[in-house]
Design a protein that fits this description.
Elements lengths: L3 E4 L5 H12 L3 E6 L2 H13 L4 E5 L5 H11 L7 E4 L10 E2 L2 E2 H23 L3 E6 L21 H22 L5 E7 L14 H12 L7 H13 L10 E3 L2 E3 L8 H15 L7
Parallel strand pairs: 1-2, 1-4, 2-3, 4-7, 7-8, 8-9
Antiparallel strand pairs: 5-6, 9-10
Helix pairs in contact: 1-2, 1-7, 3-4, 4-5, 4-8, 5-8
This protein binds NADP nicotinamide-adenine-dinucleotide phosphate (NAP).
Amino acid sequence: MPRTVLVTGATSGIGRVAAERLGERGWRVLVHGRNRERGERVVDAIESAGSEAVFHRADFADVDAVRNLAATVREEPRLDALVNNAALSVNEYREAEGVELTLAVNHLAPYLLTHELLPLLRESAPARVVVTASGVHFRGEIDPENLSMPDYDALDAYARSKLANVLFAVELASRLDPAAVTANAYHPGFVPDTGLYRDSSLPVRLATRLASLVPGVGTSTAAGADGLVYLTDADDVADVTGAYFARREREEPDSRAHDTGLRERLWDVSADLVGVDPDWP
Ligand SMILES: NC(=O)c1ccc[n+]([C@@H]2O[C@H](COP(=O)([O-])OP(=O)(O)OC[C@H]3O[C@@H](n4cnc5c(N)ncnc54)[C@H](OP(=O)(O)O)[C@@H]3O)[C@@H](O)[C@H]2O)c1
């Protein structure tokens, strides 16, 4: 049975390329996203390269869809890696089940998915969890006791969700036996050619387009995906846990990643919001 990885957000951008590269390396790839047509194209590409792949559709704005995805994945005989990569940024304030949408999709969904899949990851040990965060987490502000966002700003919401990703990855690592499951956060660089900026306001889309034309500013989608593949597959990082990587380089995250009180408060509030016992794993 080949090593198996679930890559969320694998229908587009760095997740798509990472899924295809992992397939080339012989992994069985569970391709997740919302867009079935693009998902099936990724599956076809992986199968053409000689590996196994299956598409799973789930909208992370829907907690039940996350639970159903996890239930389907739990039917797999093994899960060696979970790449929590799916994310969005939305221009206008929206909610998913009472929570600001960006936080719900980018943080609460992977929190719940990891909770649901951790038993299978442990059974498949040594296993890895990789969380695609972002360098934007440095400018994020988060108060776990007050997650409302009355003066909505798309970048603030996105940065907050990405700070939550870093806090979650570090807290998860601190709760796990690293010999069984590691957890790390990842920053791919500024990758202007992905779909992330698709729904941004016109000024953001223009700024992104312009920035992508400046030599040395942007990272290619392939280079952004490379670090994801590295953290999922490379032997050199098999024992590394609780770390933050920018591409293949280990870097220091924001100092709040070391604030255990903040991490625990976010953990407990997240558990409450998705309806699980906070005392996990
Ligand atoms: N691009 C950058 O400059 C940059 C920089 C730092 C970090 N990142 C991070 O890199 C990761 C990948 O982003 P990307 O740049 O490759 O963007 P992308 O091309 O837009 O890919 C995002 C993926 O997430 C999925 N997704 C979005 N909303 C979803 C939802 N509600 N439910 C389920 N899946 C959903 C999309 O699926 P569908 O298309 O099928 O809906 C797609 O597969 C994200 O975590 C992002 O925060 C990106």
